Amino acid sequence: MSEAPLDFPPLANLPSPHSCVVNLGTLTDDIFEAYRAVFRQYNTAGWPIILDPVGAGATEFRARAVANCLEWGYSDLIKGNMGEIMAVAQWKGGRSRGVDSIDSGNAEDCCRLARFLARRESTSPNFQRR
């Protein structure tokens, strides 16, 4: 685990299987700019990326950060609370306040949202429509 931008290129080139968590919780300009390279390098190497859009939807800055990450490359998994995932999906005005979710939903809403986001982002190569 590293937050040092200079670590990202050599870590992406390690021969053993590994993944990278892109955590938007404590963004700095250096780390955020390095994430662009992380997406390119890890996607090229075929290693999984987990996107953790902490506080997505809480501020315009975080909304832009999430949008940039989604444009820069493929995430194998997007994890978050209901408000964060709703914000990432731009689903019914989803928003959050830091790590606390403002929005909630029942199990059916959660499943519908997960299916929508998985299809839109193609986060599961084996995803089949039912």
Explain this structure to me?
With 130 residues, the chain is mainly alpha-helical. The chain has one domain (5-121): Ribokinase (UDP-N-acetylmuramoyl-L-alanine:D-glutamate ligase, 3-Layer(aba) Sandwich). 45% of the residues lie in helices and 11% in strands. It is built from five helices and five strands; from the N terminus they run H-E-H-E-H-E-H-E-E-H. The protein has helices spanning 8-12, 29-45, 60-72, 82-89, 107-121; strands at residues 20-23, 49-52, 77-78, 96-97, 100-101. It has a three-stranded parallel β-sheet with strand order 1-2-3, covered by helices on one side. A two-stranded antiparallel ribbon has the order 4-5. The chain is globular and about 40 Å long.
